[in-house]
C-alpha cells in the first residue's frame, strides 16, 4: 500500500512555514504553553503588586496619622502595648478560639 503525499506538502515554500510554526509552537524552549503560563503568572504578580501598593499607602497614612496626631498615638499605644495612665488599671481579656 502506497501512501499518497498531498501536493501542498511537496511544495517546499509551503512546507517550510508549516514546519517552522510547529517548531515554534510546540518544540522550542519558549513554546506556546510556556508563554501562556508566563502571562498568567505576570497577571497574578501585577494583581499582587497593586494589592501591596494599596496596603503600603494605607500604612503610610496610618504612620503619618500616628506621627502628627497625639490622640491617635495614645490610642495605638493603649491598644497595642497596653500602656496606661497613672492610677489606672487595665484588664486584658483574651478570647480562646476553638
Architecture overview:
With 98 residues, the chain is mainly α. The chain has one domain (7-81). The protein has helices spanning 7-10, 12-27, 32-68, 70-81. Helix 3 (32-68) crosses helix 4 (70-81). The protein is rod-shaped and about 105 Å long. The termini are far apart.
Keywords for this structure?
98 residues, mainly alpha, 70% helix, rod-shaped
Strand-helix topology:
Layout: H1 7-10, H2 12-27, H3 32-68, H4 70-81
* Helical percentage: over 70%
- Rounded mean pLDDT score: 89
Helix-strand category: mainly alpha
Beta-strand content bin? under 5%
Separation of the first and last Cα atoms: 75 Å
Number of helices: 4
- Count the E strands: 0
The Cα radius of gyration reads: 33 Å
Q: Which spans of ≥5 residues are poorly predicted at pLDDT below 50?
A: none
Number of separate domains: 1
| SSE order | HHHH
Overall, the morphology is rod-shaped
Largest sheet geometry: none
